[in-house]
Amino acid sequence: AWFSSDFSDAVGVVRGGKVERYSKGSRSTEPIGIAVDTAGKVWVTDAATVSIVAVSAAGQMHAIKLGTPIARLGRMAAAPDGSVWFAESTAYSITRIKDGALTRHTIDSARGGPYGVAVAADGVVWATLQSANSLLRIAPDGKMTEHEIPSPGVSPTDVAVGGDGAVWFLEFRTDRIGRFQAGKFDEFAIGEAKVGLTGLAVAPDGAVWFGMLRKGSLGRLLDGKVVEFKLPRERARPYSVTVDKSGNVWYADISGFVGMIPASEAAR
């Protein structure tokens, strides 16, 4: 499990129960976008150097400059074709890197505010537009379609796509999980207010996992039912969540930890 580190120069990985760190030579600022491509290369957003940094499995670094004076960057996702996509708020773009080249998909409205990015198995890219209260779909041919969320002012953040093609997203301001499938929106209430929803992933069994930053917990949504998993460390603050192929649920704790819920426990 790879992770980024805020206020440090390191990109880290957990291997065999041990943490390894690789210095990228510059201090990070909000490196919230991270993805592993099909070749095993790790990509990290680096707003401080206005670039995207690629890290090989051996720890070798390569930076791709964004060519803008400053950068405000969101989440990142890997695509089946080997490319990586990331939210580039300063350019109002969902941007692709493939074969070292940048391709920007610029949002027409300046109210876009892109943040979350996910790529479906068929190569379709989905993103959240926070200030536009919308989901953005980018087809493989580059055509962009915006889908406005019916509930106003939900501030969509993270997004993930399930194996059945359902697009899941967090509604930060309303403490709900949204789903968009077959042209229809649905919402699932967490049952509590101001839990600080952040981080989203869909497991192989279809369960939707998310972080509850203010509760020190992870949540699982399955068959319309929400189950809370209280994390063992006191004052844990889970910010990012991912699920590996075996069903283990990994999370990055912004207070300086990486944790994991084993698949056997996650399925209970």
Features:
1 helix; 52% strand; mainly beta; 268 residues; four-stranded antiparallel beta sheet; single chain
Describe the protein in words.
Helices cover 1% and strands 52% of the residues. It has one helix at 263-266; strands spanning 2-4, 10-15, 18-23, 34-36, 42-46, 51-55, 61-65, 73-78, 84-88, 93-98, 101-106, 114-119, 125-129, 134-138, 144-148, 156-161, 167-171, 176-181, 184-189, 197-202, 208-212, 217-222, 225-230, 238-243, 249-253, 257-261. It is built from one helix and 26 strands. The strands form seven sheets. Strands 4-5-6-7 form a four-stranded antiparallel β-sheet, with no helix packed on it. A four-stranded antiparallel β-sheet has the order 8-9-10-11, with no helix packed on it. The chain is mostly beta strands and 268 residues long. It is globular. Strand 24 and strand 25 (249-253) form a beta hairpin. The two termini are 22 Å apart. The model has no long low-confidence stretch (mean pLDDT 94).
